[in-house]
Each structure stands twice: as C-alpha cells, then as structure tokens.
Input
Amino acid sequence: MMPIRVLDLDGSLPGQGPVARRLQSGQAVLHDLRSLGPALRLWARRQAYAAFESFWASLPASSRPALTLVGSGDFHHLTASFIASAPGPLTVLHFDNHPDWCWTMPRRHCGSWVNEALALPHVQRVVTIGPCSDDLVRPDRKGANLEALSNGRLELFPWWHGPSETRKAVRSGAGHVAADGLIRWHNLVDQDWGDFLCALMERVPTERIWITIDKDVLPPTEAVTNWDQGGLPLQRLIEAIRRLAANFSVVGADICGEYAPIRHRNPFKLIEARLDQPRSDAEPDLSVNAHTNERLIAAFEAAL
Output
C-alpha cells in the first residue's frame, strides 16, 4: 500500500474526509508542523527552512514511493527538498497554474522553487503543465528563468495563454515558438490530450520521475485554493498520473493547493499575499477539495 505523509502546516488537511480516513486506517502518517507553518508559508528565511530540512532528513526512508500532502500552495517550495532527497537521474512533472520559475529573495519562495529543483545535479528536466496565470505576461520583467526555457532543461505547456512579449532572447522549445520578441505557446486547450501525453512521454529523458501537483491548476469548480486558478480538467490530470505511472518509475509525488485562511504575522508576507492572491468574501466550499483529493489520492494508490 502506498505510504502517505501528511505535513500539517496550516490545519487544512487532518480533518478532511479522504485524509482523515487514511490517517485512521494507518495508511497515512500525520506530522504536526504547525509551529513551523507561519515561518515557512509563502517564503522562508534560511533558519526556518533549515529547521524544515532537518525534520525532513529525520524521516525514515520508505521502501515504496510515498505521496506527500502539504496543504496550501503557499508551501510549494518544500517540493525542492522532497526532490533533493530522491537521488538518481530524475525528471520532474509539475502541474500548476503558475510556473514558479522566478528569481526571488528570499530564494526559498513558493514562486521560485523550480529554480531550486533545476539546480540539483540529478534533475535533468522540469516539465511544467497547465499555467494560465499572469506570470506569463512579460516574464522577462518578472525574473523568469528564460535561460532554462531556452536550453530545454525547462519545458512549459500552458493550458491557455496568449503570446508573451519579451526583450530577452529566447530559443524555441517543445512547448513554444520564440520569434520577433514573442513567445507563442502551444496551448494545451487546443491539443488532443492523449496525443500530448504520448509526445511528452517520448521526450522525458529519464526512467525515474517525480510528480508534483498544485491544485490551482484545476478550475474553481474542482478545487478551492488561495491562488488564481487555471482550467486543466481533473479527469485529464488523473489520466496523466495513470499514464505516466504506467510508463515510468514514479519515485515520489506531492500535492498542495488546499485552501487555508491567510493569517500572516509577518507584515511583508501579508502585503505580498494581498497583492498576489485573490480575495473573496464568500465562504469557500471545502467539500470540493475533499472530493478532488479523494480522486487524486485514489489515482496514485492505483498507480503506485
């Protein structure tokens, strides 16, 4: 049975039906990290992140690929540590409404963790699937890692986005054509999903893969998150999990993108969250997340 690690950083996971049932049965193990959560959320200074890495290094090795649940997408930068602990040639399959490819300070930021993954010597490629966000508007002005996009170590496939203007030179790649100061994306909404997956799997350079999912890649009808959301249908995401697991060795996976109320004590984090994250007065229907997590966890259980 696939082991599940539940990192309780923000309180969004332990009481959720599909998670609670697996905790009760013993398939999932709960790790109480609420004391670290505020310092890690959105971004982390060196000392706070070192405390998390010490915790992660202390966990016993699993004999089977594990699924790690981490709560809000504000913690997606922890994925870089998960990947670092999976040595050996690796390709990262990254499903997200945001490319998470900017250069940031502090560097441990949920918007920049892809760069941390690409810096690991055993990671040969990151493939980002599903962005629709404004992060693709003038990416050169937002510190995007266009060098990795140009050299092919990073592939990016938006669900849908118009051409991106850039003053930096960019070479064409699997997910885009670059010319005349524009990056024209090969939008997935216009493609046959099965054909896309076949072409993707032919290009994956390693037998071993890591799958990381931020549920904000899904439309609002299929997830409730702290971020603006994309349009990749849940059923297509599940099909991708199934087919990738059937053709590669999945050494690990993680899911974030829960909804957790913003309670930043750090004023800079509070300002950043208010600028970057949508606000709504409506009470979120969190049963949507429980339903989606049941389907995603079940997909991994069947595949792994």
User: Anything to note?
Assistant: The CA atoms of residues 102 and 143 lie 5 Å apart. The chain has one domain: 4-303. Residues 4-303 form a domain with the Arginase; Chain A fold (CATH 3.40.800.10).
